[in-house]
Design a protein that fits this description.
The complex is a heterodimer of chains A (79) and B (726). With 79 residues, chain A is mainly β. Chain A has two helices and five strands, in the order E-H-E-E-E-H-E. Chain A is globular. Among the domains of chain B are: 168 residues, Rossmann fold (3-Layer(aba) Sandwich); 70 residues, no CATH class; 185 residues, no CATH class; 64 residues, no CATH class. In chain B, strands 2-3-4-1-5-6-8 form a seven-stranded mixed β-sheet, with helices on both faces. The chains are: A mainly beta (79), B alpha/beta (726). At the A-B interface, helix 1 and strand 4 of A face helix 3, helix 10, helix 12, helix 17 and strand 12 of B. Strand 4 of chain A pairs antiparallel with strand 12 of chain B, so a sheet runs across the interface.
């Protein structure tokens, strides 16, 4: 399951990065393994998605989001 | 003499860094460029206490010291170079209170460079509303520094920050995170290879290249026995470093930062749902664009007309007051016209940046980028290009200045290069007069052909911009390792002070940056139009007088005289006739002079080149003078045809009478008209745009490429159109 599989409002936890290495900018913005992630708004026609990751509100394109694996939300890992 | 220390303001974008900078420095600030690159350099002076002044540098916003753009590398290069005259004695890290966690990442990195850092937490007035509690003393202890709680909006905490800066010598300069823990063996080897260097600095130099690549790595390559790592390995280590820093930050904040999640929700989510709605979002954006257009097109026309009149009056005053001669002409028609050509853009630039500043400060701009990203993606651009491109429909100059928000250099360059294709307001007078001449008056589905043609020209301009963006995206060989990620800041009411500062700043940078080039070109064009080497030019007065005496006035002049006389009551006719005839003579002389001036000779010289496009040498001259600014087309034709009036109808009437000597058909017919419209749609005929492109790209290469490429393309399209339609 990746970020793009989530429905708006559904919360998940970002998995360890294995096959895919996201750009360092994403990590800096708080998109780290163990962070919570929630889709807030999706732009139409496969446009970018607006997520709340670890308290950071950011927009990313689907090509990147679809490569970030997520796990069902576990509140323990989310500080 | 008072002592001065360097203070660097560093922080994430959208933290209100600029507001704090404005509060600290007030009007004691200046905006320039870093040498050799086009990143804005803001600096100012702040008086701290008796005998101590701070030289404050507002560094570009960045999320970390891992550079992926030119803006960010400016920050890293300054912080790593102790010999730089701007190297800070103390850094102030500015964070907004809601995103403290993310801002502390950058804090720990700067701390590792052993530079004392004060933590300034801005927007502290929001704490209560957002349910945030901070144990400042505990946080100061854990982060090993001093903290100032600030609200730039409420103007609180600024004095405390000044106090902390003044006492910078008491701050610790020890790191808080040991980055070498991510790969102890590797860092050990590094230490052995470079015993005199700072480990973290070395690490920054080594890793910069994985994302960007500006910093000189020679010393490292000469001595690589510490065991180099592949880019993928370095990237993995950078990931580890970021995670390590976040672990430290999470532990610290657990002790001293509390947020009540229930309080935090609210406004943002509601406003986002409206402004980013699949339908309403676009509708609202469209309405806001309309408002901005109204301002740039309509409201700015009042100050622009005023400027126009004042400069015309000033020119007349100079001509009548100073003794007539070359020097007076140079001042009145060269220098003053050139300065007028700069000042005339100020209202549009100020209006556009006033609105852009509001859109940005309020947080709305990021939503626009989000909404428009999908639309721009097929052309190799992102949503960040939409505002510059659309602004180009008013004027390319502020539009190109607005590209500074595009962090990705390749996307920014492409946007700069293609924006002049968008139909700007200066093309409008040319379009209107030619459309009125050559497009029949009929209607199609209730819309007039003429209106549809105008619409089509706007569409053609946008299409040319987008298609050339796509071509440039594939052909420009520039590293493009940046990808699209954008923070969506919280909504704020813009501070009027910041908005006004931004508008004034942009206007100043246009006047001082592009102004001298525009002035120089205006003087050259004036010289070419008012000087000639031919005998005809030098003896224009005698030759024309003689011709009028023997052959009488030209048909055109006779018409002018008749129409003028018709307006005068019989009693005054006789007294005014001589004056009207003198005017007609002067117009004929001006026309004759222009025909034989350097630019007239050039017009005739290029006639064989423009003939296949359906133009004669007169249009050739008008096309040449249009390189000053497109709207000059109409006034040049009025001088050449010596119609003695800038009334559109008079000129139009005169143009309709022109006959093509080759085939005896009207010169402005459907084929040549379309060819002319297309030429004006695509050609790069605006020296001011060229000047601003030179300034924004810091090189003559790109404006020259625009000039040659766009004009050549325009020529080919116009040629094709005329040959097919003829």
């Amino acid at each position: 399951m990746t970020i793009t599989d989530l429905k708006p409002g559904e919360i998940a936890t970002i998995d360890e990065f294995e096959a895919y290495m996201p750009p360092i900018k994403l990590l800096e913005l708080g998109c780290l393994p163990g962070s919570s992630v929630e889709i807030l708004i999706e732009a139409p026609l496969n446009g970018p998605i607006y997520v709340n990751v670890n308290g950071s509100h950011i927009a990313i394109r689907r090509t990147v989001a679809s490569q970030i694996e997520v796990l069902p939300f576990k509140s323990a890992e989310h500080e | 003499m008072s002592k001065s220390i360097n203070v660097a303001l560093i922080g994430n974008p959208n933290t209100g860094k600029t507001s704090i900078f404005n509060e600290l420095t007030g009007l004691n600030q200046k905006v320039g460029n870093y040498p050799g690159i086009t990143v804005e350099k803001k600096e100012g002076i702040c008086k701290l206490s008796r005998g101590l002044r701070a030289h404050i540098i507002d560094l570009p916003g960045t999320y970390s010291l891992n550079t992926t753009s030119l803006d960010e590398s400016v920050v890293v290069e300054l912080l790593m170079n102790k010999n730089d005259k701007d190297f800070p004695e103390v850094a102030v890290l500015i964070s907004d209170v809601e995103n403290l966690k993310r801002n502390l990442l950058l804090y720990t990195q700067i701390k590792d460079l052993k530079i004392p850092v004060i933590l300034a937490i801005n927007m502290a007035d929001r704490m209560l509303r957002k349910g945030i509690k901070i144990d400042v003393l505990q946080l100061e202890k854990d982060l090993d520094t001093r903290i100032a709680l600030i609200s730039a909006r409420k103007k609180t905490g600024i004095d405390e920050l000044k106090e902390l800066i003044a006492n910078y010598q008491t701050l610790s300069n020890q790191p808080v995170v040991d980055a070498s823990r991510i790969a102890p063996d590797y860092f050990d080897r590094l230490k052995r290879a470079f015993p005199n260097e700072d480990l973290y600095k070395l690490w920054l130099v080594i890793t910069q290249d994985t994302n960007f690549g500006e910093i000189d790595k020679k010393p490292l390559q000469e001595k690589s026995d510490f065991g180099t790592l592949s880019n993928a390995e370095l990237k993995r280590l950078q990931h580890k470093e970021t995670i390590l820093r976040y672990q430290f930050i999470n532990n610290v904040l657990k002790q001293s930062y509390e947020v009540d999640l229930h309080a935090a929700k609210g406004l943002r989510a509601t406003v986002d749902k409206i402004l980013m709605h699949k339908v309403f979002g676009y509708l609202i954006f469209f309405l806001i664009l309309l408002l901005i257009f109204q301002a740039i097109f309509d409201w700015s026309s009042y100050p622009m007309d005023f400027i126009d009149e004042q400069f015309a009056a000033l020119g007349n005053w100079v001509k009548t007051t100073l003794p007539s001669g070359v020097f007076t002409d140079l001042i009145a028609e060269g220098i003053l016209a050139g300065i007028a050509g700069i000042v005339i853009f100020i209202p549009q630039i100020a209006f556009l940046f006033f609105f852009i500043a509001i859109l940005e400060e309020s947080g709305y701009m990021s939503r626009v980028v989000f909404l428009m990203d999908r639309l721009m993606r097929p052309f190799g651009l992102s949503g960040k290009s939409i505002v510059p491109l659309i602004s180009g429909a008013a004027c390319a100059i502020p539009a190109i200045m607005a590209t500074r928000n595009i962090t990705n250099w390749k996307e920014r360059l492409i946007t700069i290069l293609v924006t002049p294709f968008v139909t700007c307001s200066a093309r409008l007078p040319v379009y209107l007069i030619i459309i009125a001449l050559v497009i029949p008056a009929g209607t199609f589905l209730g819309f007039s052909y003429q209106a549809l043609t105008l619409l089509l020209l706007y569409f053609v301009g946008f299409a040319a911009a987008l298609l050339s963006a796509k071509i440039l995206h594939h052909t420009l060989k520039l590293s493009n390792r940046q990808f699209f990620v954008m923070e969506m800041p919280s909504y704020k009411v813009p501070r009027i002070k910041d908005v006004l500062f931004a508008a004034v700043e942009k206007t100043k940078s246009f006047v001082y940056g592009a102004g001298k080039i525009i002035l120089a070109i205006a003087i050259v064009l004036w010289f070419l139009g008012s000087n000639g080497f031919r005998q005809e030019f030098k003896n224009a007065e005698e030759l024309v007088t003689e011709r009028i005496n023997t052959d009488g006035f030209s048909t055109q002049s006779q018409q002018y005289i008749d129409s003028q006389l018709a307006e005068i009551t019989s009693a005054e006719r006789y007294t005014q006739l001589l004056q009207i005839q003198e005017n007609a003579k002067q117009q004929e002389i001006a026309s004759f002079k222009l025909e034989h001036s350097y630019i007239g000779v050039m017009g005739k010289f290029i006639e064989p080149m423009v003939q296949p496009l359906g133009y004669d040498w007169k249009i050739g001259i008008a096309v040449l003078t249009s390189f000053a600014a497109r709207e000059v087309f109409v006034s040049t034709l009025s001088t050449i045809y010596s119609v003695g009036s800038e009334e559109e109808d008079t000129i139009k009437h005169r143009m309709a009478m022109e006959v093509n000597v080759g085939n005896n058909k009207p010169l402005f017919n459907f084929a040549s008209g379309i060819s002319l419209l297309l030429f004006y749609a695509f050609a790069m005929q605006c020296m001011s745009t060229l000047a601003i492109v030179k300034k924004e790209t810091n090189s003559w290469k790109w404006p020259m490429m625009q000039l040659v490429g766009m004009t050549l393309f325009a020529y080919l399209v116009a040629l094709l159109a005329y040959q097919i339609l003829q």
